[in-house]
Design goal:
With 571 residues, the chain is α/β, with parallel strands linked by helices. The protein has 16 helices and 19 strands. The chain has 2 domains: 242 residues, 3-Layer(aba) Sandwich (Rossmann fold), CATH 3.40.50; 232 residues, 3-Layer(aba) Sandwich (Rossmann fold).
Length: 571
């Protein structure tokens, strides 16, 4: 056997987020017993907070069992003999803090280390093709989307040539469906033993040889898997979650979905007309002539490859990026000139919405969530928050510092979906949720009557929910009516067509702007390193972003854009 665990117990004794010892240990794993044969590929299933990530961290040597024995390749999990033989990719992806590194330097360094350890050029070329990092070499890590940064992280983790065990903790959730399929196909071809904890099952039906069902810190089942056709793994995961759910919690969730809001809005909710947006005046546009119209009350799935421009488009629509000279309308108002989020017209759940819960000074990581809710005095907010808590099984005693990634997402969803809004703009907000919780969030939004723009790489479970599809292809946008059945298959087919598009043209110098730009209050003081500001965290000018021919024209990214701000947008 490649991976063995026998009666393993583990409890958290330290709150790492606050650096304090807990008064009472919190049990995370209870009597874990499993065995995976060499060459097996195990899909680790379970609800948010069930213990999947803790199990993989323990097998990776990040934790020491309180009781029991866990081994990999007949060695203790923390044995130095496993160095170079075990790869572990955690759920936390690389952030934008790698702003000083070019993708070429990261990839070249990983290749050089692999070659010195006996790797082959053919294998590394195949890994580059699978992750898609070959076409990112000229870029800087700060200028990549979340999915593209995850692809670079996977290349580095999978480059060592002697890997025998691979531990993946939601490592492909950020990737678009095509890249995810290529990466898992590559992993399968390595013949390594793989444990893959995931809530994303698109195209995964024939991939695993085993499934491990983790419930409440215990292994409820660890058995061989036989696919019954497309969608069978997703259906199995959802059915097991429903079967393990207590009857009273199931009834509470059903009651939370009984109320339905009737829309009072009509006409055009979201309008883009010829929107072109660059992160740098000399860089290739992230959006290029983007035009579309969304009617009020429609539920729109936004799809596209990693780096296609989805997050940029949604941030502009929400007013989270500055587009003063762009023709954008949200129910007749310009999002950069009117604070639509403060007035309740727009609710924006962007890439950083979960981090906001952790970093907000008013919300201590040691404060129970119930106390956080007491700060909101609006009765309508409280009523909807209680419904959402019942729907997502959120408890008032939860503390953010002790929650799993999926549980933190649930907490923030309660806070973000409780206020009413006319337009909800959501960027990958459900990738951390288990299949049942994701289904219930979509059902809540369906009954909410708001216009929804929902960017996602998770396609299963969208049948009957989506009314339209907004395809983003290399910065251009196209709206089409959603299929009534097999939405996942239709969306995946569209992505394959996108992958066949010719490469985009090189960046060109844009025409100079005429006149001055009057910035709204607060924007002039923002800088390029702000998390969700007008010029955001996805990287402004670096030598790799604007091209080598412009490398000598700038000193640093921040200085270049400080000058841009001070000039009122003129170059």
């Amino acid at each position: 056997m490649a991976v063995v665990a026998g009666d393993v117990d583990f409890s958290y004794r330290v709150d790492v987020s606050r650096g304090v010892t807990l008064a009472e240990p919190i049990p995370a794993l209870r009597g874990i017993t499993l065995s995976i044969p060499r060459g097996g590929r195990c899909a680790v299933l379970g609800a948010n907070g069930a213990g999947k990530s803790t199990l993989l961290r323990l097998l990776a040597g990040r934790h020491t069992p309180d009781n029991g024995v866990a081994s990999i390749l007949d060695e203790p999990c923390r044995s130095p003999k496993l160095n170079g033989r075990v790869a572990y990719v955690p759920a936390e992806s690389w952030g934008s803090g790698l702003a000083s590194l070019s993708v070429a330097s990261v990839v070249t360094g990983a290749r050089d280390r692999s070659m010195t350890e006996g790797g082959s050029e053919e294998t590394l070329d195949a890994l580059e093709a699978a992750t898609g990092v070959a076409k990112l070499r000229h870029r800087d890590t700060s200028a990549l989307s979340d999915g593209q940064r995850r692809a670079v992280q996977l290349f580095v983790a999978l480059a060592p040539p002697k890997l025998e065990v691979i531990l993946l903790d939601e490592a492909c959730a950020d990737l678009d469906a095509l890249v995810r399929d290529r990466v898992l196909t590559y992993v399968r071809a390595t013949e390594a033993t793989v444990l893959y904890a995931t809530h994303v099952f698109d195209g995964l039906d024939d991939w695993p040889t085993h499934v491990c069902d983790v419930r409440g810190g215990r292994v409820a089942a660890c058995e061989a898997w036989q696919s019954e056709g497309p969608g069978s793994l997703f259906a199995t995961a959802k059915a097991r979650l429903e079967a393990s759910e207590p009857a009273d919690m199931k009834e509470a969730a059903a009651r939370a979905l009984e109320d339905e809001t009737q829309s009072t809005l009509s006409g055009d909710a979201v309008v883009f007309e010829g929107v072109t947006y660059r992160y740098d005046p000399r860089a290739r546009p992230a959006l290029d002539g983007c035009s579309f119209t969304i009617r009020a009350g429609r539920r729109v799935v936004v799809v596209g490859e990693n780096g296609a421009g989805k997050s940029t488009m949604l941030a502009l629509a929400a007013g989270a990026r500055l587009g003063m000279d762009q023709s954008i309308s949200i129910h007749g108002a310009h999002p950069s000139r009117s604070n639509l989020r403060a007035s309740g017209v727009v609710a924006y759940l962007g890439p950083a919405f979960k981090q906001q819960l952790e970093s907000c000074a008013a919300i201590s990581k040691a404060t129970p969530f119930g106390e956080t809710l007491q700060a909101y005095k609006d009765d309508a907010f409280q009523e909807r928050a209680k419904r959402l808590m019942a729907l997502l099984h959120v408890e008032e005693s939860w503390r953010t510092g002790l929650c799993s990634s999926g549980q933190k997402t649930r907490l923030q969803l309660v806070l973000q979906l409780a206020p009413r809004a006319d337009v909800r703009i959501m960027d990958e907000l459900t990738r951390d949720l288990d299949a049942l919780a994701r289904h219930r969030v979509l059902e809540f939004l369906k009954r909410d009557a708001a216009t929804c723009l929902y960017a996602t790489h998770v396609f299963q479970g969208l049948d009957g929910w989506a009314t339209d599809v907004l395809r983003v292809r290399r910065g251009a946008c196209l709206v089409e009516e959603a299929a009534s059945v097999d939405v996942a298959g239709v969306l995946l087919s569209g992505l394959r067509n996108d992958a066949d598009l010719p490469p985009p043209p090189p960046p060109v110098e844009p025409p100079p702007k005429q006149g001055s730009t009057n910035l709204p209050a607060g924007w002039a003081s923002r800088r390029a390193n702000t998390l969700e500001g007008g010029f955001g965290a996805h990287g402004w000018t670096t030598a790799s972003a604007v091209g080598a021919e412009h490398a000598g024209e700038i000193s640093t990214a921040h200085q270049a854009f400080a000058d841009l701000y001070e000039s009122g947008g003129k170059r």
